[in-house]
Amino acid sequence: MDKVVRSAADAVADIGDGASLAVGGFGLCGIPSVLIEAVLEHGASDLEVVSNNCGVDGWGLGRLLAAKRIRRMVSSYVGENKEFARQYLEGELELELTPQGTLAERLRAGGSGIPAFYTATGVGTQVADGGLPWRYDANGQVVLASPGKETRTFRTAEGEKPFVLEHAIVCDFGLVRAWRGDRHGNLVYRDSARNFNPLAAMAGRVTIAEVEELVQPGDLDPNHVHTPGVFVHRVVPLTREQAADKRIEKVTVRPLPDDLDEEGAA
């Protein structure tokens, strides 16, 4: 089955108001930036987005956030976005903070048909006991907090230990970015850009992949495929310019030693 669509705009045309999106990437690494821009231009609003983070000010999911298209975020880290902090603290955005490994497993479980699972992460904290602020009002008062979760004790090799029940995540759409992909939707990610992309691909009822290099069926070694085409419904080939447009989240430099010139020579 040929899953290639003509453009990113066509691929996201049925994402409506109130839809939930599982979005791959970590920081700005491996984010489906072209699909995010297409969603922004399409105009869908009141979105619930599940992603490790929410981009940065002016790029990635930060673009949707600045346009106030996101109603709710499920994330594990949100510290690189000032607009995110403002919206959350002023009651404009709902946030469910989730431990990173738990978030990854909730997405994987959703794609695997596992409704819930027990984990030791969060036991004895507000993650399990409830009370994490999900939404503030304009005056900084908590108006919605996380509920308590079921806990059970299981026998382990180290003895009896408590575990907390976490529910799987399934979203209306999954948006991911791959290094290479074929027309059947088989995807290969490169190095650290793999991150949350395979998990977001699994968790979407309809998964859309933007690919930096489109190849023909049979060109990918099956042993190297990270996301099988069964999880992918639409493939958007990127132009060379789109594939090369990758932003750096944070640049850290240090002064040159006094005995070196700008070329690094002594």
Quick summary:
It is built from 8 helices and 13 strands.
List the helices and strands and how they pair.
Blueprint: H1 8-11, E1 20-23, H2 33-42, E2 47-50, H3 61-66, E3 70-75, H4 82-89, E4 94-97, H5 100-112, E5 116-119, H6 126-129, E6 133-136, E7 142-145, E8 151-156, E9 159-167, E10 171-182, E11 187-188, H7 197-203, E12 204-215, E13 234-237, H8 240-244
Parallel strand pairs: 1-2, 1-10, 2-3, 3-4, 10-12, 12-13
Antiparallel strand pairs: 5-9, 6-7, 8-9, 10-11
Helix pairs in contact: 5-7
CATH superfamily of the domain at 8-115 and 168-244: Glutaconate Coenzyme A-transferase
Q: Structural class given helices, strands, pairing?
A: alpha/beta
Task: Please give the count of helices.
Answer: 8
- Oligomerization status of the protein chains: single chain
Considering the chains and any ligands shown, give keywords for the structure.
Glutaconate Coenzyme A-transferase, 13 strands, 266 residues, 8 helices, 21% helix, 8-stranded mixed sheet, single chain
